[in-house]
Structure formats: C-alpha cells, structure tokens
Specification:
With about 350 residues, this protein is mainly α. The chain contains 15 helices and no strands. The protein has a domain of about 120 residues.
C-alpha cells in the first residue's frame, strides 16, 4: 500500500511539472486569457447592475465596455506622454542623482568611511536606476500588447456570464459542481473588486500628494501605485521607488523624505487598517504562501502573474481543499486557523 502511495505521489508530481511546463511555454496565450478573465470579473458587477435595471444585454454591455475603453484611452494617453517625456529627461535625472552620490561620499568621509565616487557608482548606477523605472512601465505596457484580443475576450465573457450558471446546472452531480464553481468565483470576485477599489483609493491619494509636492509625472506614479498595489508585500515598495527618487532629484532629501513617509503612511493605514476591515480575513492564506506565490506566479507568467498571484493561489487552494486526497496541501497553504463558515 505504501509503495502504491509513493508511486501515486510521484505520478502526481510529474504531472504537475508537465502541466507547469506547458503553461510556461503557452504563456503568450494564457496571459491575455487570464487578464481578460480578471478584467471581466472586475467589470461584471457594473454589467449586472445595468441588467438588473432592465436594460438589454447588448445595451448594458455597450455602456460598460464604452466606459472602460474611454478610461483606458485616457490613462494610456496620459501615461504614454509621461513616459516619452521621462525618457527624454532620463540623462538629466541620472546626472542629478549622481550629485547626491557625491554628497553621500563626502558625508561618509566625515564619519571616517572612505569611499570614492567611482566605487560608490559601481555599487549604485544612477542611469540603471532611472532606466529601471522605464522598464517597469514598458513591462506594464506589454500586458496590453494584445489589447484587441483582450477586449474581445472580455466582451464574450461578460455575455457568457448570464448563461454560464445555467450551463453548470445541466452538469451531472450539478449541486456539487455549482457549489464548487460558486465558491471559487465568489471569493475571487469579492477579492478583485474590493482590491481594485482600494487600489484606486491608494492611487488617488498618491496622485494628490505628488501633485501638491510638484513631483513630475504625478499621474504616472499614481497609476504605478494603483497597479502595484495588487502585488502583495513588495508591490508598494517598488511603486514608491521612482516617485521618491524623482522627488529627491527635483526638491532635495527633505521633500523625498516627506514623500517616503506619505507612501509608508498610506500603506500602513490602507494596507493594515482599512483593507483588513473591508476585505476581512476570508482568504485564509499564510503570509509566507502569499510571498512565495508572488515569486512562483511571477516566474511562471511574468508581471501579470505577479499582479494576479493572490486570485490564482485562491483558486488553487479551493480546488485542493475540495479533494480529500489534496486537502492536506490546502491546509498547509492556510493560516493554521480553523475556517469559519460564512
């Protein structure tokens, strides 16, 4: 019996590796699909709202998609002009950042630490740091390279949502299948919608703060803060880097410290106070699992995998929990606390 169990687990592990290899090789197809799926989940409540008001499906869909396209076009226009201008001034920003390196070398020498400017530059390359900001935005833009395909898929998913539940009910053992799918969809929909609203609030606060300070491309960094708020643990830190560095270059260390404190305050208040109260602790994922899933899905699917790491690991956890043979893995992914029925 033990030998059969060992063989079983080896077969399962081999199957998982093969599936993951297939996903990675087919990431060009899977990434647009996942992006479409989660965009559809975010837009679904608005679509359902218009349907409940008695509007026809086509009219409801037209309103939702038109509003989404207008918002995206406005955001893309503002971001693209900011990126172009930022790239044109990147040498100027990196030169100014190098001056701060020189001043840090002088300060270090005053406390007995000898460090030449060249040695310090070898450790921290100002041009590379500023280029890193551009790479972030380029990788974000690459998510929407198949924009038409993504948009078309979102449209079909929204239309299909009205009939999907009816299809599931026709399946054999329908109550179990419907319960399983409802559990996955309800948790992911709740997470994605609430996380999107919280991320919009985060981006709005950052935009206002940077605009008051006068930091260049405030809207661009607000969009970065919005998107990277979906990335757990390290997303907020990465989002703060370009805005803080640019404020340092423009206005000096004191203003950069103020912007840093604003980012920290926003993350503490929203991330540690507001978000847990709004979203609750229903995800049931340990902090370590959240961080490791960020690394894993980022490796497997790139930036989109990092942005969607939490919804993806929620799906995996629910599916593992519904199978008696894999429930122990779901328990290991959890917080160790008993799950309370809602």
């Amino acid at each position: 019996m033990k030998k059969n169990q060992i063989s079983y687990y080896f077969v399962v592990m081999a199957s998982v590796i093969i599936v993951l290899a297939g996903i990675k090789s087919a990431s060009e197809i899977i990434v647009p699909f996942l992006l479409s799926l989660f965009l559809a989940i975010i837009l679904l409540p608005t679509y359902n709202f218009f349907n409940k008001k008695g509007l026809p499906d086509t009219f409801s869909l037209t309103i939702v998609i038109s509003g989404f396209i207008l918002i995206m076009l406005l955001v893309v226009k503002l971001i693209s002009s900011s990126i172009t201008d930022f790239n044109a001034n990147i040498d100027n920003y990196s030169d100014k950042l190098s001056l701060y390196y020189s001043s840090l070398v002088v300060m270090a020498s005053k406390i007995g630490i000898e460090l030449s400017v060249d040695e310090f530059s070898n450790i921290i390359h100002s041009k590379q740091i500023m280029s890193f900001i551009t790479k972030i935005m380029q990788s974000m833009g690459s998510m929407f390279t198949n924009g038409f395909v993504v948009l078309l898929t979102v449209i079909f998913m929204l239309l299909e949502s009205r009939h999907f539940k009816a299809k599931v009910e026709l399946l054999s053992n329908k109550s179990e299948a419907l319960s399983h799918l409802n559990k996955i969809s309800s948790q992911i929909k709740e997470y994605m919608v609430l996380k999107a609203l919280i991320s919009i609030l985060t981006g709005a606060i950052i935009w206002i703060a940077l605009s008051i300070m006068g930091t260049d491309y405030a809207f661009l960094w607000a969009v970065v803060a919005f998107l990277f708020n979906f990335i757990p643990n390290i997303g907020s830190i990465i989002a703060a880097i370009p805005a803080v560095l640019l404020t340092l270059v423009q206005f000096g260390a004191m203003n950069a410290l103020i912007i840093s404190s604003i980012y920290v305050s926003v993350n503490i208040i929203i991330g540690s106070v507001i978000e847990p109260k709004v979203m609750g602790k229903g995800l049931g994922l340990s902090t370590l699992v959240v961080f490791l899933s960020l690394i894993f899905w980022g490796w497997l699917l790139g930036l989109v995998g990092m942005l969607l790491s939490i919804p993806l690991i929620i799906m995996v956890k629910i599916m593992l929990n519904d199978n008696s043979n894999t429930r122990w893995i779901s328990i290991l992914l959890g917080t160790g606390e008993p799950v309370k029925a809602k």
